């Protein structure tokens, strides 16, 4: 960059404009083109890399926005000045660019000499703007200046256009009446209200817009400094009337004029009617109460609930209906609060005309009106609700008792079953096994006396048969009363069951014990018997190679998951066949214990059986212990 020349970066996404600007800068002896950019991101980077005095930048480019780019350039290259160049000249865009620090704003189409002059002026920290943009942006300033003139200067021989525009946006009807009592101006609200055009209203008198009975009152509105609103009727062009509110004032100027404000009350009356209909159609009693606690209005449901005529209620204190209660309807706190008041509800006691009382739910809501803040009380008789609540509470108590009874029944049932199994196992051990053991010993004595080899072979086979019987009886004893289960080890009892299945069928297994809680004896027995039933189904029907058993703690209970890789089945089809009770027994056991069961299977995809039972302490019942049956010491092992 030359020592005396002004470095310039050109940023524009249009190739033709970019090249034309570059050639224009190269043609000026005091300017030097140091960089080009095609988007906002490149414009900031070129300013940082080349440190120019001026960046002339298109406002609407991709990859960013102009205000952000100006901020980034001013922050990172404080000595650089930005001149905006755009095909658009919206006032808001121009003001936004100037607000972030742009040193000029030119519209595309500005003569080349003005563009070069703007670049030079920006380098001297001087401002430049297209003339048409300057006029448009200065208009708000001129309006602000006009608004600061004295009010008398706004009204002369004719109303200024800006003042007419202000009246045109007024939220109500506005009429300006001249010294002769003729209408000089009417805004759109008045024209719509009365059905006249501007030309038809001009030179009419105010009395022409009201019925004859209100003409004297309408004339009194004109010529005064201020009048309080008067409720009258307006008369439309077609002769129909509508409720309206008129107020007037005096405009002091070179020529005194009057102004009349007109509000159509038809919608207000309609809103009041809808409000009354809403109150009357409410299924609850509704009262409107003033700040002193006096009833101002009541619906027919209030009459039915309390037994009073509404005429008898109007003006009475609300404490007559809700006596001796902490009901605060004083609105002083709401009046003093700067925040919008918020309603609330409470349960109180209502009193009918016959002095009978009833529980009531009372909603208290504030209602702002022109007369002040009122209170809307919505009252509902909750006798039936409380009765239903009482019945529900009693039902819940009954369910809790029933649940405890069910748990007790389950405990006794499981205990009885296990006790019976223990008794049978003890009988087998003490009687059948002892007899067979004695017979085996006798047989061995007899065999030693025999000399004939054929007779000895018959005796050997008979001895093997007796040993097999003993083995099966010992397994039956284990099935009836697993020793691990008696000692409180659920996982050990299941492992013994799985080992037996592996020895008999070759099905391999994996047992995963992640149960940290210790189940009560009855619950442990129920879990074991339910899992045993599921494993029996695996052994008999699944034709599986492996089975995975999990014991998991879940939601204060035990979740047992048994997954096999067998051939699977259709649960709906199999469970509907007669004689297939195993799966039903699994589900029933879990449900009796207050749990649930889920069985998932399909042909060729194996079977998953999941059941969950709670581990809560059951009601007091005899525990199943090794001493609960008359078993001898040293139970035989399978």
UniProtKB/TrEMBL annotation:
Claim: Phosphoprotein is one of the keywords in the record: yes
Start and end residues of each PAC domain: 344-394
Start and end residues of each stretch annotated as Disordered: 616-638
Entries under InterPro entries matching the protein: CheY-like_superfamily, HATPase_C_sf, HATPase_dom, NreC/VraR/RcsB-like_REC, PAS, PAS-assoc_C, PAS-like_dom_sf, PAS_4
Location of 4-aspartylphosphate modifications: 58
Domain PAS: 159-229, 271-324
CDD domains: HATPase_UhpB-NarQ-NarX-like (cd16917), PAS (cd00130), REC_NarL-like (cd17535)
Residue ranges constituting the Response regulatory domain according to the UniProt record: 7-123
Annotated Pfam families: HATPase_c, HisKA_3, PAS_4, PAS_9, Response_reg
GO cellular component: membrane
Keyword set, alphabetical order: Kinase, Phosphoprotein, Transferase, Two-component regulatory system
Molecular functions (GO terms): phosphorelay sensor kinase activity; protein dimerization activity
Protein name: PAS domain S-box protein
Organism: Streptomyces violaceusniger
Lineage: Bacteria, Bacillati, Actinomycetota, Actinomycetes, Kitasatosporales
């Amino acid at each position: 960059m030359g020592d005396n020349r002004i470095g310039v970066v050109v940023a524009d996404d249009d190739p033709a404009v970019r090249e034309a600007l570059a050639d224009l800068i190269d043609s000026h002896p005091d300017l030097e083109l140091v960089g080009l950019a095609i988007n906002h991101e490149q414009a900031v980077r070129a300013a940082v890399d080349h440190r120019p005095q001026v960046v002339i930048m298109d406002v609407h480019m991709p990859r960013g926005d102009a205000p952000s780019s100006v901020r980034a350039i001013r922050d990172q290259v404080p000595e650089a000045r930005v001149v905006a160049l755009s095909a658009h000249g919206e006032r808001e865009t121009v003001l936004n660019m100037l607000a972030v620090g742009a040193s000029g704003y030119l519209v595309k189409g500005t003569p080349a000499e003005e563009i070069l002059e703007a670049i030079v002026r920006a380098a001297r920290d001087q401002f430049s703007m297209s003339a048409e943009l300057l006029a448009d942006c200065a208009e708000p300033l001129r309006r602000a200046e006009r608004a600061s003139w004295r009010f008398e200067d706004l009204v002369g021989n004719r109303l200024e256009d800006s003042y007419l525009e202000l009246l045109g946006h007024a939220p109500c009807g506005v009429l300006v009446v001249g010294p002769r009592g003729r209408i000089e101006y009417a805004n759109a609200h008045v024209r719509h209200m009365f059905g006249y055009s501007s030309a038809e209203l001009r030179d009419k008198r105010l009395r022409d817009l009201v019925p004859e009975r209100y003409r004297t009152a309408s004339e009194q509105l004109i010529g005064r400094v201020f009048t309080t609103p008067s409720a009258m009727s307006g008369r439309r062009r077609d002769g129909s009337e509508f409720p309206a509110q008129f107020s007037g004032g005096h405009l002091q100027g070179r020529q005194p004029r009057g102004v009349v404000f007109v509000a159509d009350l038809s919608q207000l009356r309609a809103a009041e009617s809808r409000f009354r209909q809403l109150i009357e159609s409410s299924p609850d009693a509704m009262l409107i109460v003033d700040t002193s606690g006096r009833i101002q209005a009541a619906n027919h449901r209030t009459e039915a609930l309390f037994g009073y005529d509404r005429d008898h209620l109007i003006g009475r204190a609300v404490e007559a209906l809700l006596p001796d209660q902490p009901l605060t309807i004083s609105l002083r706190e709401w009046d003093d609060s700067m925040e919008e008041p918020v309603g609330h509800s409470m349960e109180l006691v209502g009193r009918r005309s016959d002095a009978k009382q009833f529980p009531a739910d009372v909603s208290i809501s504030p209602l702002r009106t022109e007369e002040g803040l009122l209170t809307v009380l919505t009252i509902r008789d909750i006798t039936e609700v409380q009765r239903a609540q009482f019945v529900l509470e009693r039902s819940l108590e009954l369910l809790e008792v029933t649940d405890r009874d069910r748990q007790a029944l389950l405990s006794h049932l499981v205990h009885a079953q296990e006790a019976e199994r223990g008794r049978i196992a003890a009988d087998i051990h003490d009687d059948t096994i002892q007899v067979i053991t004695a017979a085996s010993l006798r047989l061995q004595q007899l065999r030693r006396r025999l000399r004939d080899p054929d007779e000895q072979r018959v005796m050997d086979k008979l001895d093997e048969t007796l040993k097999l019987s003993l083995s099966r009886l010992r397994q039956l004893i284990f099935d009836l009363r697993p020793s691990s289960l008696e000692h409180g080890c659920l996982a050990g009892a299941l492992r013994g069951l799985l080992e037996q299945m592996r020895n008999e069928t070759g099905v391999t297994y994996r047992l995963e014990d992640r149960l940290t809680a210790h189940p009560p004896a009855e619950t442990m027995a129920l879990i074991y018997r339910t899992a045993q039933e599921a494993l029996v189904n695996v052994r008999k029907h699944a034709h599986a190679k492996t089975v995975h058993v999990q014991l998991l703690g879940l939601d204060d209970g035990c979740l047992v998951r048994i997954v096999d890789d067998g051939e699977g089945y259709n649960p709906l089809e199999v469970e509907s066949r007669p004689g297939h009770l195993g799966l039903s027994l699994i589900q029933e056991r879990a449900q009796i214990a207050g749990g649930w069961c889920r069985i998932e299977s399909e042909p060729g995809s194996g079977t998953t059986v999941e059941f969950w039972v709670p581990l809560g302490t059951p009601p007091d019942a005899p525990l199943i212990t090794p001493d609960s049956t008359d078993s001898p010491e040293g139970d035989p092992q399978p």
